[in-house]
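Handout, section 4.2: multi-component inputs.
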Amino acid sequence: LADVICEPGELKRFSREIFRKLGLSDEYAEIVGEVLIATDLRGISSHGVARIPIYAKRIKMGLINPKPKVKTLKKNTTSALLDADNGMGQIASYQAMELCIKKAKEHGMGSVGVTNSNHFGINAFYSMMASKENLIGMAFTNASPLMVPFGGSDKLLGSNPLSIAIPAGNEPDLVVDMATSVTARGKIEIAARKGEKIPEGWALDSEGKATVDPHKALSGALLPVGGPKGYGLAIFVDIVSGIMTGSNFGKDCGSLFGDMERPQNIGHFFMAINIENFMEIKEFKDRMDCMIQNIKNSKKAVGFERIYMPGEIEYDKNMELLEKGIMVNEKVVNQLNELAENLGIRDRLSN
Amino acid sequence: LADVICEPGELKRFSREIFRKLGLSDEYAEIVGEVLIATDLRGISSHGVARIPIYAKRIKMGLINPKPKVKTLKKNTTSALLDADNGMGQIASYQAMELCIKKAKEHGMGSVGVTNSNHFGINAFYSMMASKENLIGMAFTNASPLMVPFGGSDKLLGSNPLSIAIPAGNEPDLVVDMATSVTARGKIEIAARKGEKIPEGWALDSEGKATVDPHKALSGALLPVGGPKGYGLAIFVDIVSGIMTGSNFGKDCGSLFGDMERPQNIGHFFMAINIENFMEIKEFKDRMDCMIQNIKNSKKAVGFERIYMPGEIEYDKNMELLEKGIMVNEKVVNQLNELAENLGIRDRLSN
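Output:
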């Protein structure tokens, strides 16, 4: 077996079939499939179909509820709080952003929290639901503890990512999607496998000392981006996602991979803002295009061939892969085909 | 003359008197005085009364309107857009956040943009107006171009700061207030005066090359914090503050110190979110205190004696200076006393 090139529609159907067999309703299996394939199309293969095996494992172990009844715990003109009923994070999150969009269109703004939830994939999927509707969209989630507070050495914060998506005109929409850590743990794992050092400032060892040794970093902790700045943002994300929704926060957030005895009970937070209440969308988009062109046509720094807008690399990748297909890693293919066999699905991923 | 210790109330009255003589109404002079003294009390002396001389200069030159009529250009259930009428940024911003608070209390959320404005002081003043009312407050402003896009070497972005303030219970409220650049230009100026090198990653020289020479950095540009991360946040701040409000954005933002031929025409953006729509404020604050204590009592990193929460250093400073008084730098004292004399004010700052 080698890496497999998958037509996006087929990969989505395959994913959907797996989640159906795992007990999800047609509607929910469709949502999860859509989020995963959109993620692979943006080139974020770490968070796409490669995550299906761990999701399946948690569902089978009873740690994720395959048949959640998403409940509205609170609602108000502009806000709502949803209980994900320990289902896959994608399900309640999709509904939460749909609700934000509706509220923002009707009342100017919308904010919806989600509690009792699990890993939801990439933040940008949800913020972009809003930007496609000509709104500013934001998505936040807390996550299992991997990062220290600024000045600390205990892992009390997740990499707590945030995304902001803003519509442009002829240019691709602007999409910020960032962890509040300096780097992803995955990059330290890659350095460890290659036997390379990691840059200063990425991580601490288990004794709270700065390290450039990836092995020591893996048994230590990630550092927040920009010291007190990333630290402040990570706390903010934890507050709106975890504290304010009544979910776990800080060190208590369950890990997708690490905690196989309990649900994650993490939380998410979504917002949408109606641009039309400030400026006509046509004028806004013209101004966005103007800013984007100003930046893209400006002088490059030494060592750079091109200036990218936030989200542009992922936009280009999406366009490329829609045509060429999604390349699924050999190891992931094996896991997915094995899962399909165990679930009694006939389809297989193959060249 | 030496540094002068000023009782905060007296310093505020002195400031207010200057702005009255410069033509501001009693109400507006009071607002500006309040913002400036609150800033000095938080220990941010670069943005407190030390800025009075440049504000006064711009007012006298006709670049800032001392008698603005703040107009509501647009309004809606949750949003509004205010025209600052080229007045001091503090005036319309204060009103904008008051409006956000009112909307958030009534409808759950509020967002108000300000256009045709000038430097407004520190973001935290406005976000904290909301946190004092048990809301989450946010404040954004664009600023004169000092920073490059990630990968670029033209100054197309300001240090575009953002602030988020969140109420806690027995613990001090949590206040994030950060520029989206790695560091402030002021820190590079200090290094230049001391003849010290600056750390790698702070700045580029005028040819777009990384530099550790503060003099080359001063004729070059600041870098965004965390590369693409700070870059993405800076653009977001520019979009909501500048693009969406109809103000200048990017390279066109006027500089408080640099552009003495035209008004700044920068913009600001404020938001407030009502926590009570998600969780009772008592429970929320208990959970905030729990998080804060978890972090503060945790193990320190090597080289750190104490872990601070975002905004804690400024909170402590405020408590200290309320008692001990504000220490105003000798050079600033001279400028302020000279200004008072020119304006025919009898009061002087003196020990």
